[in-house]
Amino acid sequence: MSSLMWYVYEFARKAWTDAFANAHSEPEISEKPERFRDFPTVHKEYCIGCGACTISCPSPNAIKLVRDEDSEDGEGLTFPVIKKGACIRCGFCAEVCPTDPKTLVCGENHLILPEFNIIPSKRQYIVDDYLCIKCKKCMKQCPVDAIILQDGNLVVDQLKCISCGDCLDVCPVNGAMKGVFVENLQDQKNLILLTVNYLEDYINNKEDDLRALETDDLLQYDVAISEIWDEALKIIPDEEIALEIMSNAVNRLKIRIIDWDKSKCEKCQLCIQDCPTGCISFDDDEDTIVRDKSRCLRCSICYQTCPFSVIKYFIAKFTMDDKESIHATVKASNLNEDIYME
């Protein structure tokens, strides 16, 4: 009974009733901290419709891209919509949103560095053994030890690589370290084919220079990229990506060039029977030997077969240091040396 009376007495105290009536939380408890992540707020006018937010979201159906209807004022806006019933308020969508200002806002950004972005990189970094001089600068520079020495060659461990590009910055040999794009592979192949065909035609059209070239001399040309640039952008519209793909291909490119002076040909036809693809034939109407370049392997068998040294064989190599031109170096082939270099 005494305990009950004590509780009644406590409840009746004026100090207690005042405290109860005017109760409030401390500011640091009642106010949301900056790091608190609530449901994302969408500012749809900033959205570029890239879809990074939908790819990063770990919760099924929590976020999707929608588009307003078109109107007389223009096309409808594309923007993300959040389904609160599925959203877990992790904030990943806001982390990866590339717009500035952000389309999605939901608390303090975790300041994840770009190289740790949870969206997979479009590039895959690889070492080109053909060009690598094994200086190991890339290996020392890599912040996550993703570059290792394996069977005497430098190799990038793709499971560790964070695509930061530091290896590319320190590599002293142009093209030895490559940031290869892993998307639109067929478009990349088409762009490389366009470039290779252009360079081969350019060298083939230098017939007078080729036929006058001595064994120990070199021909050097700066081949303008502008001739095929518009066509290249039709294949891959992004100028930076197109240029990098061309550069990666050109810097290790070696083309064999076959040429012969028909005016000096004795028409013995030995090259015809030895050609493995049948691309060499005799044109009775023109009374001359012809070669189908589209079927030619540039294997040099005709060059080796010709008893009159009418057929010439050249090696052309290329480098690309800027977006203006491709530097070409052509030498007359020393076949034994070329086979050894392979």
Describe the protein:
β11 (280-283) and β12 (288-291) form a beta hairpin. α8 (185-204) runs antiparallel to α10 and α8 (185-204) crosses α11. A 4-stranded antiparallel sheet has the order 9-14-13-10. A two-stranded antiparallel sheet has the order 1-4. It has 14 helices and 14 strands. The N and C termini lie far apart (104 Å). Helix content is 32%, strand content 21%. Residues 110-120 and 336-342 have low confidence and may be disordered. The protein is elongated, with a radius of gyration of 34 Å. By secondary structure, the protein is of the alpha+beta class.
- Determine the N-to-C terminus distance: 104 Å
What is the helix tally? 14
Class from secondary-structure proportions: alpha+beta
Strand order of the largest sheet: 9-14-13-10
Mean pLDDT: 80
Uncertain ranges: 110-120, 336-342
Question: How do the helices and strands follow one another from N- to C-terminus?
Answer: HHHEHEEHEEHEEHEHHEHHEHEEHEEH
Shape: elongated
The percentage helix is 25-40%
Give the strand content.
Answer: 15-25%
How many strands in all? 14
Main sheet overview? 4 strands, antiparallel
What is Rg?
34 Å
Any chance you could write out the topology, listing elements then pairs?
Layout: H1 2-12, H2 14-21, H3 27-30, E1 41-42, H4 52-56, E2 63-67, E3 78-82, H5 92-96, E4 104-105, E5 123-127, H6 137-141, E6 147-150, E7 153-156, H7 166-170, E8 177-181, H8 185-204, H9 207-212, E9 218-224, H10 226-235, H11 239-250, E10 254-260, H12 270-274, E11 280-283, E12 288-291, H13 301-305, E13 311-319, E14 325-332, H14 335-341
Antiparallel strand pairs: 1-4, 2-3, 5-8, 6-7, 9-14, 10-13, 11-12, 13-14
Helix pairs in contact: 8-10, 8-11
